[in-house]
Amino acid sequence: MGRLRICIFAHSWISDWNHGNAHFLRGLAYELSRLGHDVLCYEETDSWSMVNLLQEGVDRAAEAFRNFRKAFPTLDVRFYRNDASLLPFLEEQLREADVVIVHEWNDPKVADAILSLKSRLGFRALFHDTHHRAYTNPKEVLRMPLARFDGVLAFGEAIRRIYAEGFGVERVWTFHEGADTAHFRPLAHEKDTDVIWVGNWGDEERTGELEEFLIMPTGRLRDRKIAVHGVRYPRQALDRLAEARIEFRGYLPNLEAPHAYARSALTVHVPRRFYANGLSGVPTIRVFEALACGVPLLCSPWVDTEGLFRAGEDYICVKDGRAMEVEIRNLLADEAARQQMANNAAETIGRRHTCAHRAAQLLEICEELGK
Questions:
Q1: Confidence of residue 280 (pLDDT cuts 50, 70, 90)
Q2: 193-352 belongs to which homologous superfamily?
Q3: Where are the domains of the chain?
Q4: pLDDT digits (tens, 9 = 90+) for 179-193
Q5: Distance between CA atoms of 86 and 336, rounded to whole angstroms?
Q6: What confidence category does residue 14 fall into, taking pLDDT thresholds of 50, 70 and 90?
Q7: Chain segment 220-270, per-residue pLDDT in tens
Q8: What's the CATH code, domain 5-177+354-369?
Q9: Cβ atoms of 258 and 226 closer than 8 Å
């Protein structure tokens, strides 16, 4: 396949404040660029995520911007306004596009404007879904003009089936997220934390699960250092963490996560309820990133229905809060076991689940679209 001009529209590239989609998209664009393709990255001016990042404070936001530019110096990020200037902007920007990817966290009006140019400008268009909304709020997804896309990239087989069988989309590919191993890898660092959790509160989508699998088990480890990173924690949640003697460290720019993982003996994954039930085959980006960073991972109940990983080797899944406490204690006391888990996980990620793998898959899909 020759050199492609790929335009990707996302909620934000520069800000990852409560915006986990940016993690994978950055890595995907980075790998496509490394393969010699022209990748243009678009986001709306004053996105919700960007506005909230700026509210973290000037210094914190400036640091996040610097880290982004340092990590992704070649990413060409372009801004647009969702107003009368949008269509002329798109006509100019998409004139030479081969493939346009519209992530699900975009205004349907933007998608409609892009698709209105498709036949005249001759590009292919893909819709990219990395959210549970197709399962939990299908009416919201159906606001998008799905029938006018050339296909859908769904970040799990369960999501793919919803698009194919529920929404009647003819061409849907299972397109999992993956680890940006150019930036997420094991780092040498002295351990100053025993257990870390990196995650945002989640709009009541896992409140009970966080209590059972994170707060209660680690709260009983009185002689250990436990820390939580994330945003959108309500006052009652912060009070509960303090009561359990868990340190709340606030917003963690995603590019700093490898350093946070390197400082911790192990981490915990507590998926939102939908990913533990109807969408159990979707691991979400945190799993890929933690495993890539070589930090031992303990999970609340989650079934890897697609066989992406080796349960019990790459990570350990526990059935309840008491089992979580037992496994945490066991792993903290067994450095050799932690190292073995880290080695297993890194091997699996490197073999199957990097952004480079996903970039190669996307190019195969683009080739299929051209036939």
A1: confident
A2: Glycogen Phosphorylase B; (3.40.50.2000)
A3: 5-177+354-369, 193-352
A4: 999 999 999 999 999
A5: 56
A6: very high
A7: 999 999 999 999 999 999 999 999 999 999 999 999 999 999 999 999 999
A8: 3.40.50.2000
A9: no
Q: What secondary structure does DSSP assign to 100-143, as a single string?
A: EEEESSS-HHHHHHHHTTHHHHT-EEEEEE-STHHHH-HHHHTT
42 half-sphere exposure, CB direction, 13 A CA radius: 23
Structure tokens at 251: 């917003």
> Which residue type, as a one-letter code, is found at position 302?
W
Residue 204, pLDDT > 90, answer no
Tell me how far apart the alpha carbons of residues 162 and 146 are, in angstroms, rounded to a whole number. Answer: 13
The C-alpha atoms of residue 228 and residue 231 are separated, in whole angstroms, by 10
Tokens for 247, please give them.
């340190």
List beta partners, residue 129: 154
81: left (phi over 0), alpha (psi -120 to 50) or beta: beta
Domains 5-177+354-369 and 193-352 share a fold: yes
Joined together, the tokens standing for residue 207 give 């409140």
Q: What is the mean pLDDT of the chain?
A: 97
Q: How far apart are CA 257 and CA 272, in angstroms?
A: 20
pLDDT digits (tens, 9 = 90+) for 283-317: 989 999 999 999 999 999 999 999 999 999 999 99
Could you give the dihedral angle defined by the CA atoms of residues 314, 319, 325 and 329, in that order, rounded to the nearest 10 degrees? -40
**Which whole-number Å values give the CA distances from 323 to 216, 265, 310, 319, in the listed order?**
11, 18, 19, 6
For the chain, the first-to-last Cα distance in angstroms comes to 12
pTM of structure: 0.97
